[in-house]
Amino acid sequence: MTADAALELILPLFQVYYDIKREDVTEPFQAEAAFHSHEEQYFLLKSAKYTECDAHEYVFFAAREHLTLAEAQKLDELAWAEGLSRVKPSSIHRSTDIGLILVADRVDPDAAEYIKKLRRSKSYKLLLHGYSNYRAIAIETSSGAMTCNRLGQHLKKLFSNINFLE
To answer: Which pLDDT score, from 0 to 100, does residue 146 have?
Structure first.
């Protein structure tokens, strides 16, 4: 299976909760997904609101024929920078998570090791205005191997039902 075909299998998994964008996406990504949530809690009446919070998530998708270390680093930096540029910290901001999903026919071992060691997070005003975490996964379609960072473990579970070797 090619990387582009695998990406076409992955994107529908996100369509339930995310807004998928395939046009006018940040270069060099093929697609972007965005999730926004606003919660409010009341005490008996809507006028007695005692808390509210916003949560956001942005996921960037890239399909490549061959993922090298240099390409992985470039895509990682671009996804993190673009995700952070969309953060609007405020007193009601809880979190803005950023994700990177790389699909490639072949993934170099040093690129896979780089993805595995990624650790990125950011807090805003000592967590009073929320935080950002980073999830990343690289999928090699020729072998079906998936490599992710610590926070990307749930992505590995999400994609475990897809047979990339077809």
So the answer is: 94
Q: Which pLDDT score is estimated for 129?
A: 94
pLDDT in the model for residue 166: 67
153: DSSP letter = H
| Claim: this prediction has a pTM higher than 0.70 | yes
Return d(Cα 136, Cα 118) in angstroms, integer.
8
Q: Compute φ and ψ for 4, nearest 5 degrees.
A: -65, -40
Q: Rounded to whole angstroms, how far apart are CA atoms 40 and 58?
A: 22
Q: Residue 110, Cβ neighbours under 10 Å: how many?
A: 11
Q: In whole angstroms, what is the distance from residue 92 CA to residue 71 CA?
A: 36
* Cβ count near 164 (within 10 Å): 21
Proportion of the chain above pLDDT 90, given as a percent? 78
Question: Contact at 8 Å (CB) between 162 and 1?
Answer: no
